[in-house]
Write a structure and sequence with these properties.
This protein is an alpha/beta fold. It contains 4 helices and 6 strands, in the order E-E-E-H-E-H-E-H-H-E. The protein has helices at residues 37-51, 70-86, 98-108, 113-138; strands at residues 3-7, 13-18, 25-32, 55-60, 90-94, 147-148. The protein has a 6-stranded mixed beta sheet. A hairpin with a 6-residue loop joins strand 2 (13-18) and strand 3 (25-32). One of its GO terms (cellular component) is cytosol. Belongs to the YqgF HJR family. It is found in: Cytoplasm.
């Protein structure tokens, strides 16, 4: 199954994809450099459609002790908008230490300065996707621990 991973950020949003066998993950460049949540969600949906992605994983930035702060709340809001825009469930995946891992990967490949900035969030998305795919390989047939499903627009809800 082809997946698309998202590392949502205020200034830049990184994306990564995998092959249908779920063995090779790749950062997608250029990163999305939009600030509007709705515009980022729309851009992600376009990339998912273009790549034939069948599922979307969105990083959830938890604190090191496992609690959630304001950044996680914002990522949850974004993931819900993304699920609504894509019309499919979005898996939320713990992204603790992914930026540190991504920075180390880029440093190991002598990628610094502007080039690092241009790739960091996409490499972080690839780290998120690798973690999720590793979980899937060890939990075949299981549903991910946390998914957000599309919600109907507020104005279409019928009051009873």
């Amino acid at each position: 199954m082809k997946w698309l991973a998202v590392d949502y950020g205020d200034a830049r949003t990184g994306l990564a994809g995998c092959d249908a066998s779920e063995t090779i993950t790749s950062p997608i460049t250029p990163q999305i450099e939009e600030k509007s949540m709705n515009k980022v969600a729309a851009a992600v949906v376009q990339v998912a459609a273009a790549r034939g992605a069948e599922g979307i994983v969105c990083g959830l930035p938890k604190n090191m002790d496992g609690t959630e702060g304001s950044r996680a709340a914002k990522s949850r809001r974004f993931a819900q908008r993304l699920a609504n825009a894509a019309g499919c469930p979005v898996v939320l995946w713990d992204e603790r230490r992914t930026t540190v891992s991504a920075a180390a990967i880029l440093a190991d490949n002598d990628t610094f300065g502007q080039k690092r900035k241009e790739r960091l969030d996409s490499v972080s998305a690839a780290v998120i996707l690798e973690s999720f795919l590793n979980w899937r390989s060890h939990h075949p047939g299981e549903e991910p621990p946390e998914q957000l499903v599309p919600q109907p627009p507020e104005d279409s809800k019928v009051s009873q």
